[in-house]
Amino acid sequence: MAEAILKRERVRDYLLELIETHPAGAPIPAERVLCQQLSVSRPTIRSAVEELVNTGLLVRQHGRGTFVARAKITQEMVSDTGSMSLPQAGGTWSSRVLEHARIPAGARVGRRLHLSPAADIHYIARLRLVDGEPMALEYLHVPAQVAPSLTLHDMESGDFYERLREHGVHVSEAVQSIEPTVVNDSEASLLGVPVLAPALLFERLTTDAEGRQVEYVHSIYRGDRYRIVSRLTLGASPRNTVDVQARVSGDPF
Amino acid sequence: MAEAILKRERVRDYLLELIETHPAGAPIPAERVLCQQLSVSRPTIRSAVEELVNTGLLVRQHGRGTFVARAKITQEMVSDTGSMSLPQAGGTWSSRVLEHARIPAGARVGRRLHLSPAADIHYIARLRLVDGEPMALEYLHVPAQVAPSLTLHDMESGDFYERLREHGVHVSEAVQSIEPTVVNDSEASLLGVPVLAPALLFERLTTDAEGRQVEYVHSIYRGDRYRIVSRLTLGASPRNTVDVQARVSGDPF
DNA sequence: CCTGAGAAGTGGTCTATGCCACTTTCTACC
DNA sequence: GGTAGAAAGTGGCATAGACCACTTCTCAGG
Predict the structure, then answer these.
(1) What is the ipTM score, two decimals?
(2) Does residue B239 belong to any structural domain of this protein?
(3) The dihedral of CA B10, B12, B15, B20: what is its sign?
(4) How many helices (H) and strands (E) does chain B have?
(5) Which residues of chain A have pLDDT under 50?
(6) Domain around A11
(7) In this complex, which of B57, B70, B240 lies closest to A237 when CB atoms are compared?
(8) Residue B99's domain is classified under what CATH number?
(9) Of A30, A198, B7, B106, which one's alpha carbon is 20 to 30 angstroms from that of A155?
């Protein structure tokens, strides 16, 4: 499999170099200049620049130029397309399984899933990382009765709801709550933040087409790395509606 | 701000029509066909399609075609009030004005409102209560230049955006971020919670139809009394919902 | 000295076109 | 009948060029 060296990627890498070596706010060469320097056409340049603008590394200003963004670490906002999961920010997500078992639900989880505390559930605890850095702790619970043959591999899969569908469970809706909290000792050490650091507590209860509770997720997200951003528009529609607009564009300084 | 009818937007709207009228998984016309139908060039088509792919409404498959995405995840924020305000929980809301002045913006607020730090703003700090019990602290900033004759009464009014409209300011959109934090000494005493208690920090930057920043709001909500609840449904159309997304930020304001 | 008009440079949009890579379908050969 | 291969249709990448909109700077004219 030879390297399919795309010009667009070559340009992007070149720009990333520039971004790293230039201070925030510094201008990068004009698009027409880059064309000559890299021997590619302007649309190709624009495509590469656009990608970096979307990820927040560059800021374009009409008539002035293109500049290195103020906060270089800002990542792109991603709308999760297929699977109904927690909102995921840009970067490379990975996860490490901390614990995995088939255990009784217990009182708290049992109440949420409308189960007897003695009923078995599939349980998995994961540390979720972005670019190798801890981002969140996630505790997933699925009643054993709902999907008896669920495997660890199923629960680790990126498209978990697809796997559930293969087990005959058709997810239909979920109620999610978000509240602020602070991390305790064990959470702090797993996430690599100080004890009592601010964090977001997500809870999600998912229901299938037959009205059964099929999943309860409890997550702790690092407050210093995670933030919820929403864009509200007042338009023709009667409510505060917004069509999926992915980006909150680059913050001019 | 006149309509600068961009072809790209025309194509996008046309595609949105198709997406709404076609079932999930249905193919949309080939790019070269769309070119003829809409009398635009293929790069323009591709640009519009790309936007919708990024927002998760379409799926492209090399060699096969472009299809309406299978399931869109939408997240509806429970917000009872019609106007574009912070989500408000049940109960009787009231507020107590803590401070009110016309002062220079200062560096932090100035940067968000795109003003010189020396530019005047209307400033009001309020303690918001629910059923007589403190719920949140709210700090509202409006550039004096935008609405020179704004009064305290205007800013205290329930329908603040309606008052702004009477001053010739037509609010059009806002970007809001939510992150976890803990309260400091003064916040703690005002809210009646212990120091370091978990809280939610809301920030909202509002823009008017002319693209001016017209309002910056900074609020601290008690974590023990306030929680965001959202209902996620699978397969619904994104209309009349608020899509919440997230981003990683290394430089929180 | 100040001011305003224009030049020059920037990003923003769009066109017309070519070729490549992948998938599906149909056909011709065995 | 089965199968390999060509053909057709799709999206993926890239080019060269044109014109527009906005910003900044310069310089002539007051």
Answers:
(1) 0.52
(2) no
(3) negative
(4) 7, 12
(5) 1-2, 71-90, 234-253
(6) 7-68
(7) B240
(8) 3.40.1410.10
(9) A198
